[in-house]
Amino acid sequence: MSDQEQSSKDEFFKQLAQVSDAMIAAHGKDFAMGALVLAARFIAERQSREAASAEAPNSPTTPAD
After folding, report:
1. How confident is the model over 4-43, as pLDDT tens digits?
2. What was the pLDDT predicted at 9?
3. CA–CA separation, 29 vs 22, rounded Å?
4. Which helix (H) or strand (E) segment is 4 a member of?
5. Cα separation of 52 and 49, whole Å?
């Protein structure tokens, strides 16, 4: 991993820590943990949907009349 990539990742972790701290201060740690878990689930499900749509044959998006 390059130094630039590591620095970029470190910056994102700092941002996540700041957002997490703000959520905890406003709504408590249970809310913060739940929100982060939901965010991870959203990412995982989006990747699954994108993979499934890439494998599916092209089909019309609206039904024919």
Report:
1. 999 999 999 999 999 999 999 999 999 999 999 999 999 9
2. 97
3. 10
4. helix 3-27
5. 5
User: 29-55 vs 3-27: helix axis angle to the nearest 10?
Assistant: 130
Backbone φ/ψ region at 28: left (φ over 0), alpha (ψ -120 to 50), beta: left
The verdict on pTM exceeding 0.90 is: no
- Specify the pLDDT at position 63: 57
Nearest to 39 by CA among 64, 15, 7: 15
Q: Which letter does DSSP use for residue 65 in this model?
A: -
Do 4 and 16 form a contact (C-beta atoms < 8 A)? no
